[in-house]
Write a structure and sequence with these properties.
There is one protein chain. It is built from seven helices and 15 strands. It is α/β, with parallel strands linked by helices and 294 residues long. The protein has a single domain, classed as Purple Acid Phosphatase, chain A, domain 2 (4-Layer Sandwich). Strands 1, 2, 3, 10, 11, 12, 13, 14 and 15 form a nine-stranded mixed sheet that branches. Strand 2, helix 2 and strand 3 form a beta-alpha-beta unit. Helix 5 runs parallel beside helix 6. It is globular and about 45 Å long. The protein binds fe (ii) ion (2 copies). One fe (ii) ion (FE2) binds next to loops.
């Protein structure tokens, strides 16, 4: 079983150090096989913010934790126009990682990260056709019994972002990107950006999208919240390519605690939520709900 922590939108420069410390302590104690961080390490791509982010990554690495990271739109300078267009990811590469298509593989999972942050789009993301080729080629040689996971900052899909269910813009070249993910046999598509936790079968979001489960992480540590959703991160247990468990770990003002827990099974076509366990209450057994198609 692969144990994966998925954090996003750390936002050094606009985050709460107490929450950073609590998330770090959680990771050091639980020791996942991999920590995925899907972008927005900084608030404004300033050197001081990148130095803080690099120190935090160094702390995770010093604890023996392995990471796979991609940049977010906040890791591209916004107001420094020369740097924004001439060298948008220079600081990210210097302080965080040189690899813009990071890849991780072990006996159970294969994980590819792609950079969706661009100079031309202030906050929206984009995938280009070279990245789609990398996506197809990288997963083409992966054994079929491994879980294939794609990591981007911007989700490939339009996501519900408001309380009324309003949808965001999808990532640029959305249809081609979804088709490439489908051809690559992606099982899980992990992203962030909207500071909202969400999990939904891709088939429910767009027709002909393949059998992926789309998993959004909220912001792990930023003080900028959407719809008052508290800071959180995701905790995945990938048991096999057709079985996984998703827990959402939420900040409650004093510490991180498990807020929800869903078991998923993949039937070859898509994922089904087969066991939903509500947050445990003090003195009570967790309540189990019936299977639900997601
Ligand atoms: Fe963000
Ligand atoms: Fe973002």
């Amino acid at each position: 079983m692969a144990r994966i922590a998925h954090l996003s939108d750390i936002h050094f420069g606009a985050n709460d150090p107490r929450i950073v410390d609590a998330a770090t302590a959680w990771l050091e104690e639980r020791r996942p096989d991999l920590v995925i961080i899907s972008g927005d390490f900084t608030q404004r791509a300033r050197v001081a913010q990148f130095r803080q982010a690099a120190a935090w990554l160094g702390r995770l690495h010093a604890a023996g934790l392995r990471t796979l990271v991609v940049p977010g739109n906040h890791d591209v300078p916004l107001y420094d126009v020369v740097r924004r267009f001439m060298a948008p990811l220079r600081r990210y590469k210097r302080y965080i990682s040189n690899a813009l298509c990071p890849f991780y593989e072990d006996d159970e999972v294969a994980i590819l990260g792609l950079n969706t942050a661009r100079s031309l789009t202030i906050k929206d993301g984009r995938i280009n056709h070279d990245q789609m080729d990398i996506l197809r080629r990288r997963f083409a040689t992966v054994a079929p019994d491994k879980t294939r996971i794609l990591v981007t900052h911007h989700p490939l899909f339009a996501m519900p972002i408001g309380k009324g269910g309003e949808l965001s813009e999808a990532v640029g070249r959305h249809e081609d990107a979804v088709q490439a993910a489908c051809q690559a046999g992606v099982h899980l598509a992990l992203a962030g950006h909207f500071h909202r936790t969400y999990a939904q079968a891709a088939q429910k979001m767009v027709a002909h999208s393949g059998g992926a489960l789309v998993i959004q992480a909220g912001t792990a540590t930023s003080t900028r919240l959407r719809n008052d959703e508290p800071q959180s991160f995701n905790w995945l247990h990938v048991r096999r390519h057709d079985e996984m468990e998703l827990q959402v770990i939420v900040w409650d003002g004093a510490g991180f605690r498990r807020a929800s827990h869903v078991d998923y099974a993949h039937d070859g076509q898509g994922w089904t939520a087969r066991d939903v366990i509500d947050p445990p209450r003090v003195g009570a057994e967790p309540r189990r709900a019936g299977a639900a198609r997601v």
